[in-house]
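Support request, priority: normal
Reporter: lab tech (M.K.)
Component: structure prediction queue

Hi team, I submitted a job for Cation:proton antiporter subunit C from Romeriopsis navalis LEGE 11480 yesterday, and the status page still shows it as pending. I've pasted the exact input below so you can check whether something in the sequence is tripping the parser. The sequence length should be 111 residues. Please let me know if I need to resubmit or if it's stuck on your end.
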Amino acid sequence: MLEGLILGTVMLGFFGIIWKRNLMMKIIAMDVMSTGVVAYYVLVSTHSGLFTPILDRTKQHDYADPVPQAVILTAIVIGLSVQSLMLVGVMKLAKDNPTLETDAIERSNTP
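Reply from support: The job had stalled in the queue. We restarted it manually and it finished. Here are the results:
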């Protein structure tokens, strides 16, 4: 069930990137797809019965691997950076063009 919702989120973002003509909508769709991918990694790395990797010398536990958590945090930060960079690009395009529709921008910049 949860895997289906995550796959639906990824596909929603993917088709939003392909079908939407507005640049802002494409950026939002890319963020939705990125959220789905991060949720998928969290789902895959989740195991019941594991404890957070904080050492407790009094008890013997199986600890969760902290590397996937670090990778996901890095992916979130990189995704935010890429999204910010794309928004700056859209702002610069909006200065020269009255619209953010990709078809209109391509027509106005075609020699």
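The chain has a mean pLDDT of 87. The chain is about 70% helix and 0% strand. Let us know if anything else looks off. Ticket resolved.
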